[in-house]
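Ticket closed. Logging final result for Cadmium resistance transporter.
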Amino acid sequence: MNWLISTLITGIAVAIATTFDDNLYLTLFFGKVDRTFRPHHIVLGEYLGFTILVAVSLIGFLGGLIVSPVWIGLLGFLPVAIGISHLLNREEEQVVQTVSVPIKSTARPSRYRKKTLLETLLDPQTYRVSAVTIANGGNNIGIYVPLFASSTLPSLGVIVMVCYLTVGLWCFLSYHLTRQPMIAFVMAKYARKVFPFVLIWLGLSIVIENQSYQLFPVVSLLSR
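Final structure:
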C-alpha cells in the first residue's frame, strides 16, 4: 500500500501542477457560453485535448519498457528545467490568446437543439477548445514523458486516473467561477509561484528513484 500512497501524492502533485492553468481559460470559455456554444462543448473539448496530450506522452512509458531505468531517469531533468525556467521568468504570462477569439457559429438557430454525443464530438466548437488545451499543454508532455517512463503499469494507471479526475474538477470549478472570474486569476497568480518548486521536486525524485546519478562519475565517487 506504500506504493499506492506515494503514487497518489505524485499523481496529485503533477496533475495540479500541469493542469492548473486550464482552470483559467476554462473560466473564460464558460463565460462565452451561448445558444451555439454550450458547456458540453467545453468539457468534451478539454477532455479530448487532454487525452491527446496523454496519448503522446505514453511514448515515454513504452520507452521505459525498453531502455534501462538508469537512463530513463535522466528525463527527470526535463521537469527540473521547466521548473527553473518558470522561476527565472518573472513576467506574467498570458494564457493562450486563442481564448480571446470570439467563438461563434455561422449558423444561428432560433432555438437550441440538444445534440448527440457524436455530433458534439464532431462539432468545430469542441475542436476549438481542444486546440487551446493542446496549445497550452506543451509543458505537460515534457513532464508526463519522464514520469510515465519511470512508472510501472499500476502506478501509471493511478497517475492517469488522478489527472483525469483533476481535469473534471477544473471543469466543475471553472463553470462555477464564471460569475467571479477574478478569483481564477488570483488563484493562478499565486499558484504559479509554488508550481515551479513542485516540478523541480518531481524531476529530482525521478532522477533519484532511478538512481540516474550513478551516471555521473563525480557523484558516484562521492557516494562510495
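The longest helix spans residues 2-30. No further action required.
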